[in-house]
Amino acid sequence: MRRAVVALLVLIALLSGVGTAVAQPTPPPNPGDDELERSAQEVTRRAGEVGRLTSELADLDIRTDDLAAELALSRESAEAALELLNAAQEAAAEAGRQADAARIATQAASAAIESARDRLDEFVVATYQQGLDNGPLGLLTAATGPEDLVARAEFNDAIARSQLAAQDGLERARVEKANADAGARAALQAARDREAEAAQAEADAEAAFAAADQAAREHAARLAELDARRVELQRRLDAAEAGDAGLRAQRTRYNEWRARVAAEQAAADRAAREEANSRVLALGDGPPVRGSAAVRRVIDRAMSQLGVQYVWGGGNGRGPSTGIPDRFGSPLNRIGFDCSGLMLYAFNGAGVRLPRVSRNQYNAGRKVPISDLRPGDMVFYKRGGAPIHHVAMYVGDGKMIEAPYTGASVRVTKLRTRGLLPMATRVL
């Protein structure tokens, strides 16, 4: 309307020829009342959409955490099955060695029987060849005088003793052969039993790895789906925020705050890591310590690994290592820690040897309620009735240190309560 009025006035001035024609500046847009109302409604609608999308993004983060927990559980189960397989294979190998030893004993007993038979046969042949009558009267009745009678009596007694010894040797060899046969049969049966157990353990391990492999594939597919959804939601969120200058300014301030917090956290982590690492290096492989000094050493060793990447199956008492041979698409040359591997390294500094799998680490020490947590206690996580799938270390001030999941690194974070077991494990 205003533009039309201005154009009309300019036209009248030009037509009337009054003064010099001066170019008038173009006025800014002047939206009508109805347009302003529609704009206000659009800002309100977009603000509501921003809230809904932000809430949906938070739900997606929770679902991603659930997927990571499911994958960790399947991998822990696979690793536990691998431990059982190794133990079964060792038992089968030991049973095989015992069976081999029993077969050797049986062969030795058979050789002893053959030797005893040979001695008895030699005795019989010698008696036959010399034409001796070694019956109760044969040698004695052929005596030619008293002295010959005495000599023949002594010879007859020697022959009887030799024959008895040969027969006794044969009988003992037969008994030893029977005992060796029984031992060999028992050892062979034990070897077969151990081999069957090893075969079952191998089948269980293969099934566990197959389940973990399938879980990893499903996890990757679902994460891809969630990521695509996340990208779409982020696009809509960005579009809603870009539609209003106030919302854009709010997002800018939020991003600046988030970057500042991340930088401060990174600096704090770096300082904590360097401080802890300096204490770890200063102590070296010193003598074992106890009490608060042991707790400090354990926490320092864990803190010295801040920022080290998560690798499934990685880590031992000496530090980060390559993970379990790859069945899930991860590079074989990655070096780092998984949750239980970080605990192995940390507690090894205080001379504590923990089992490898988190569910076994839960039973490695004294149980204490979460309400009585102290720095250095291990906390554990599980979902519903499933086995334990994650372990972390409480470091005090409501925080814990953990190797969380693939794609993340060792970090200090607030003690999570979702899935937290009510009892912690204390080994110091």
From TrEMBL:
Residues 292-428 form the NlpC/P60 domain. Residues 1-23 form the signal peptide. Gene3D superfamilies: endopeptidase domain like (from Nostoc punctiforme). It holds the Pfam family NLPC_P60. Residues 75-105, 184-274 form a coiled coil. Keywords: Coiled coil, Hydrolase, Protease, Signal, Thiol protease. Transmembrane segments: none annotated. InterPro entries: NLP_P60_dom, Papain-like_cys_pep_sf, PG_Endopeptidase_C40. The keyword Cytoplasm does not apply. Belongs to the peptidase C40 family. PANTHER family: NLP_P60 DOMAIN-CONTAINING PROTEIN-RELATED, PEPTIDOGLYCAN DL-ENDOPEPTIDASE CWLO. This is C40 family peptidase.
